[in-house]
Design goal:
This protein is an alpha/beta fold. The protein folds into two domains: 391 residues, Glycosidases (TIM Barrel, Alpha-Beta Barrel), CATH 3.20.20.80; 68 residues, Immunoglobulin-like, CATH 2.60.40. The strands form five sheets. The chain has an eight-stranded parallel β-sheet with strand order 11-10-9-5-2-1-13-12. It binds 1-O-alpha-D-glucopyranosyl-D-fructose and calcium ion. 1-O-alpha-D-glucopyranosyl-D-fructose binds next to loops.
Length: 549
């Protein structure tokens, strides 16, 4: 197994809009991140995944890029970016950027030219088709609205947008487009960035002829036709070409966000010899609590299913490498979703337990900003507090189908805005995030849950994360050792072993809110646990122990 930096370091994900506002306009910015570099270093993380900071009209908070070569004005300037990169590298922290090239903004110069006429040289940078029988060219649904097609009056043709209408899909079949993307990627690499997390990158290759999807239609009759665009054969050609043009000779991370990816497909995408990605973000765990109506129809998650997902992906990544995460900027808060927030004591304990359970698996852990404080979901008072286009569109659609109450409950549990409330730095107004009015409300629990308070408490979630990350940073067995599941049938305890060169760690987590009995006490001594006293066969609710022998 090849040893590299991105297997050994813990990553920290920053959503810049919500991390730290340095100039008081209510929007997080690059100077804000720079102010917090020592905080990041003190966590022990070795790499950042930075969500998009490129020029954007923010229909989808930066995932709709207007100019790939420019920094978003609200976030700062290219000089600020250079200072951030230097500040990170001085501290030996790598920077992985977000790359959004399945689509651009409709305000991108390419699209503005493309929509002008059928003969414009940029026409083929996007996917244009005639309508069929007075309707859309095919039955594809968008992730954010009923149909993936929008009719453009200028030429009377439709363009494809798998996400919002302001996010037209780029046409990867066009070699000219591909060359422009590679040149742009190389400009960022030449600046010194250490890799890319590529947004929905496994969806760039659409089946020839764009055939109808076969899946169940949404209320408006459209189908999320992932079998026509996710992990299609041409994806491999495009990624190999991208890597030959951009990655060759560089020690940079190629990380793909890959919805609709089965463990079998994942193994292929990641294979050390024949694969195309260093790591991917699959979605199985994030979909564990989807109900019959999907994401905003949550059902309780099951430990048996959690174990199955972990075990399947641990083996799917045996000849590659896995990513380990409980949440990101598209998900609600881990402790509210997978842990327990009934009491302050259980919030702290379960946040620590979740960290242990995830970080010591084989793969690279990703900490989403605020997770290291055990930040929770926000009780948004009503719709007017919601900022996320996905949530707003889901509510609009629910009004048509008569499911508003249910979707609202879904948003309160799983909405993307829970991840996007301001980072809770202190007990000062708006959590110390801004001196102005924040673009999205702060979670009212910030006077109690914040970094300053955690800093001064030896038993805080923050200080526990520091210990855990330090442990993994310095231990080859935890980084590279093999994985073995333990007590797979146990209904409350999640347990596994990591072994290398005669050294074994046993990780034991009670993921339930009740006391649990271990079948046996693992050999070795407890090197980390989340309770004052971790001994005996009985585990307290959400107790976690790490044994070493
Ligand atoms: O998300 C891709 C994606 O599949 C989303 O639809 C995701 O499933 C959903 O948000 C979960 O509810 C990426 C980005 O992470 C997301 O922020 C963007 O909105 C999206 O692509 C479009 O760029
Ligand atoms: Ca600002």
């Amino acid at each position: 197994m090849k040893q590299t930096w991105w297997k050994e370091r813990v990553f920290y994900q920053i959503y810049p809009r919500s991390f730290m506002d340095a100039n008081g306009d209510g929007i997080g910015d690059l100077r804000g991140i720079i102010e917090k570099l020592d905080y990041l270093k003190s966590l022990g993380i070795g790499a950042i995944w930075l969500c998009p900071v490129y020029d954007s009209p923010n229909d989808d908070n930066g995932y709709d890029i207007r100019d790939y070569g420019k920094i978003m004005a609200e976030f700062g300037t290219m000089a600020d970016f250079d200072a951030l990169l230097e500040g990170l590298h001085t501290r030996d922290i790598k920077l992985v950027m977000d790359l959004v090239v399945n689509h651009s903004s409709d305000e991108h110069a390419w699209f503005k030219a493309s929509r002008k006429s059928k003969l414009n040289p940029y026409r083929d940078y996007y996917i244009w088709r005639d309508g069929k029988d007075g309707s859309t060219p095919n039955n594809w649904a968008s992730f954010f609205s009923p149909s993936a097609w929008k009719k453009d009056e200028t030429t009377g043709q439709y363009y494809l947008h798998l996400f919002s209408e302001k996010q037209p899909d780029l046409n990867w079949e066009n070699p000219a487009l591909r060359q422009e993307v590679y040149a742009m990627v190389n400009r960022w690499f030449d600046k010194g960035v250490d890799g890319f997390r590529m947004d929905v990158i496994n969806c760039i290759a659409k089946d020839e002829g764009l055939p109808d999807g076969t899946g169940a239609p949404n209320a408006a009759g459209y189908s999320l036709a992932f079998e026509r665009f996710a992990n299609r054969p041409k994806l491999y050609d495009y990624l190999r070409e991208l890597k030959a043009n951009c990655y060759a000779g560089r020690d940079c991370l190629c990380l793909g966000e890959t919805p609709f990816t089965t463990p079998e497909e994942g193994a292929k995408l990641l294979d050390d010899e024949t694969g195309i990605f260093d790591m991917i973000f699959p979605f199985d765990l994030m979909e564990i609590d989807d109900g019959p109506y999907g994401k905003y129809d949550p059902v309780p998650w099951k430990l048996s299913r959690f174990k199955q997902i972990v075990n399947i992906w641990q083996s799917a990544t045996e000849h590659g490498w896995g990513s380990l995460f409980w949440s990101n900027h598209d998900q609600s808060r881990a402790v509210s979703r997978f842990g327990c927030t009934d009491t302050e004591e259980l919030r702290v304990r379960s946040a620590k337990m979740l960290a242990v359970a995830m970080h010591l698996l084989r793969g690279t852990p990703f900490v989403y900003q605020g997770e290291e404080l055990g930040m929770t979901n926000t009780a948004f008072p009503d719709e007017s507090a919601i900022r996320d286009i996905e949530g707003i569109n889901a509510l609009n659609e629910a009004r048509i189908t008569g499911r508003t109450e249910s979707v609202w409950r879904g948003i309160l549990h799983k909405g993307r805005d829970h991840a996007r409330t301001p980072m809770q730095w202190s007990a000062e107004q708006h959590a110390g995030f801004t001196t102005g009015e924040p673009w999205i409300m702060a979670n009212p629990n910030y006077p109690a849950i914040n970094a300053a308070a955690d800093e001064n408490d030896a038993d805080s979630v923050l200080n526990f994360y520091r210990k855990l990350i330090q442990l993994r940073n310095t231990d080859k067995t935890l980084q590279y050792g093999s994985y073995r599941t333990l007590w797979t049938e146990h209904e409350q305890i999640f347990a596994y072993e990591r072994t290398q060169d005669g050294e074994t760690y046993t990780i034991v987590c009670n993921m339930s809110g009740k006391t649990a009995e271990m079948p046996t006490i693992p050999d070795g001594t407890v090197v980390l646990c989340n309770m004052p006293d971790c001994a005996g066969m009985t585990m307290q609710p959400y107790e976690a122990r790490v044994y070493k022998r």
